[in-house]
Amino acid sequence: MLLELALLGIALFIVYGFHPIKRWRYRHIPGPRPRWLVGNLLDMLVSQVEAPQRWGQQYGPIWCFWLGAVPVVMTNDPHIARKIVVRPARHKIFSLHVGVEERFESNNLVFINGPLWKETRNAWQPFFSPAAVPKNGELMASSAAKLCRHLAPAAAQGKTLDIWRDIGKLTMDVVGSCAFGVDFNTLERDKGDKAAGGGQAALGSVHTPAERLVACVNDFFELFGLGNPIFALLFLFPECEHVVKWVANALPTRNFKREIAARRQLRIVGTELVQQARAAVAAEDGNGNNGSGSNTDGTAGSSSGAAHGGAGAAAAVPPKRRGEARPGSFLSLVLPFIGRRVGDTGIRLDELWAANQAAGFILAGYETTANALAFTIYCLAHNPDKEARLLAELDGWGPPDRLPSAADMDSFPYAAACFQESLRLFPPAAAAVREAPAGGIQLGGFSVPAGTALQVSIHAMHHNPRYWSHPEAFNPERFMPGTPEAAEVTPGAFMPFGDGARKCIGYRFAMLEGVLTLVALYQQYTFKLLPGQVPLKLKTSLTTGPANGIHVTVHHRRQEGYSAAGAPEE
Ligand code: HEM
């Protein structure tokens, strides 16, 4: 009897691995052949960038692949992409976490849907309005100036460095000063770079708060999602989510322990930032009021948008009313939402929600922009003629020590074009994700069942030869208005920040930071790649970044005798 049951179990498991009913529902959509049990998961584990690009060439413009038992319908075509991104619902993101970490994660703007997403996006929006973003320019430029000082010894001594790590310190510095008014000190200290770079640091081996923060964010990015083998189990057995979660937490692997520690650290930092902001408000109120959510009158969006402040700088300007931190700081916009009820969902926004918004800003604002800037430096170092054109633009603008501001953005069309072209070639977010609506959706002539995960492969679209001539070439002229290259660009084929209601909320902020940083850096320095880095190896978890950093030597332009034409005078 036992033997028969075992055989029946094995037979059922074998049949389960073919997912016959599910696969039958998607049989009409072309795509790579799924393997037993794992589907096409292994291809995605090898490269979440190359596999979609290859499938796009073989099966495009729309295809279906399988993450274990989960079908994903993907496109590399701008017209189909528009139909996908216009939908506001993001497909469910699996999570292995339990308890407070699960509750913390369930507030993340990137993952939530419905009324909670709407209310949370409302809390973020005023900080990113067209009027508010430029006010961050001064702090961004001053962080870039710090980075320039930080690079000076390497330039003087001819040392090599991983510029991706140093740029990461810059973007964390910008997040701290612009969003929270806090100096994370990332550019002031350099303890052997233990804290930075690809999550190499175990949290226990770093000590200062800034080091801990950078280390835990790096760990988070490295270990989240498909980078974690247990996570892959959720795709193999999505119906058994609770069991997989239970096993993962009961018998955590070393990496999973690291990920939990990183999340905990982020939660703690987020909570500290919220509490500091509340304390600053209470101190300014002068009556001990801690802003505990009494302000639910919808004033959150009314702040001036002056982003220079937050917890650490709150004393500089009196708050407009109780419950608000420094006007215009990110947290000043978030704090008044504490205590609100979200429609008729029964959800009440609390301090954990606010802490998640603070941590979410750190996560979203740090690594994507760092990767984009580091990729731009790589592209320019590999294309000296484009670098020369950039240097000519900067030299025409002013002396090397003149710091750029948001008001100068129109003076740097080529710097902006270089940043955009690098976002095309190496989009830090590989895909935009949505869910097919109730009743299903027609895409590219195929009907896609309700609830299906829909993805725009941003990388595959940006490399689609149907829409980009010489897609592998770095050609910033594509983004210079009035050039023949720009005239060729298909509207909608460039989507590094996604699109629709869920378009990246930070895109203006990222563009400003990217251009101001490039200007400040290239006014003073150029960078040469160490050999062996072309073509660049990529790694993708939540974002796409360089797999092994970007190793360069730094050259001071004036000392090296650079001319406006950019070439070093030998
Ligand atoms: C070069 C830098 C950046 C890139 C390439 C990037 C890219 C993206 C992409 C592709 C999405 C998904 C959009 C969609 O599904 O349609 C996204 C969402 C998001 N981004 Fe960014 N991002 C960058 C910088 C930032 C910054 C600086 C912040 C803010 C601190 C930020 C905050 C967010 C948030 C909160 C979302 C989720 C929005 C929602 O679901 O409503 N990003 N980003």
UniProtKB/TrEMBL annotation:
It comes from the Eukaryota. Its cofactor is heme. GO terms for molecular function: heme binding; iron ion binding; monooxygenase activity; oxidoreductase activity, acting on paired donors, with incorporation or reduction of molecular oxygen. Keywords: Heme, Iron, Metal-binding, Monooxygenase, Oxidoreductase. This is Cytochrome P450. Belongs to the cytochrome P450 family. Residues 284-322 are annotated as: Disordered. Residues 284-306 have a biased composition (Low complexity). PANTHER family: THROMBOXANE-A SYNTHASE. Heme binds at C504.
